[in-house]
Specification:
With 400 residues, this protein is an alpha/beta fold. The chain has a domain of 269 residues: 3-Layer(aba) Sandwich (Aminopeptidase), CATH 3.40.630. The chain contains eight helices and eleven strands.
Length: 400
Amino acid sequence: MFKIAVFNVKDIIKYFVLIILTIATLLGLTKYFNNLKKLDNEVFAKEESIEEDPNNEGLFNYDFTGCIDTTSAIVGSVNNEETPDTPKEGKKLYEEILKSQIGAIENFAPEQEDSATDENSTETSTPQDKEQNEIKEENNDNPLQLAQTGLATEVVTQNPISLNYSAEYGAVKIKNGTSFELNNEIMNPDIKIENKNILIFHTHTCESYTSSEKFSYTPTGNYRTTDLNFTVARVGDELENHLKQYGHNVIHNKTYHDYPSYNGSYTNSLATVEEILKQNPTDIIFDVHRDAIGSRPDYAPCVKIGDDVAAQIMFVIGTNEGGLWHPNWQQNLKFAIKVQQKAEEMYPGLFKPIMLTKYRYNQHAGKYASIIEVGATGNTLEQCNNSMKYLAKVLDEILK
């Protein structure tokens, strides 16, 4: 006799519906997590590629839309354009600046330096390391010549750009890009420098200059290179070496903060500085840059000091007007004025007017922190190194 299984139609429908619901639930969850992953990737991509909000300190080539009125990478106050008052105009200006700068970023694909990989060799240095060692040996064989005082000075910039300023403290001129009123109390450099350690670093480590016979190099971008022998890092070396000759304690960090990704340079450099300060408390902090006037690649601000032609220097001081916590911006400004005041006594014309901006540029990290722009794209590295010799002498005078 055969056993016959009897199925209830209602049960069949019930189980069928359960199976369909289960499959639908699984498909829905799969789609949800795939979309979530896709969304995360899109957000990450935007964070890495978009010009970051100045209020988050991750500025794309400094600040395009606010603190300074120019097509300069950081300091365009040197032309007569004023900051747009409307979002539409601001967007247009940003787009124009972006077009002038994006070529440098797109073309900035530096070749990777090859380190030795021979298993039988203990050599691990790169060609760049060897060249750095050769420079150090050359400096050891030829000690740095310290700056002399009492030399005749004269600004000798060819095709100069108008340098506007809106405030003065003695011989020091200031272009105020904020709504703060600069009174005598704010500008008076009545500061006492107790911690005299000095930290030098570079938010845009790959910025370089016009190639010259003495410092000839092959750019890997628009006035950019990863070879630290020809970038602002080399200028930092010069300042470091001169300051050490005067007996000052100096830390010089040459970490790449703008390579391989240019976006987020200020976020990267802040992390470096904060890590250094944990072990090395420092009040005086210099972020050394090279100015870039987008429409004037030949712009080379120079001052002749004795027989030397030196690149002019410019302080860029941030404030809290951009909305970020920055309680010590006035101290930063007082320090810059103190340095520039002494420089005007010793080497008139070495500095251009101080730029006071809305945004802080990581300067909340130190009691006396600043950006110093050494020269511009038209200057040579030799001219910038010359200016560091005289800057070091000025700093030594105020730190005695």
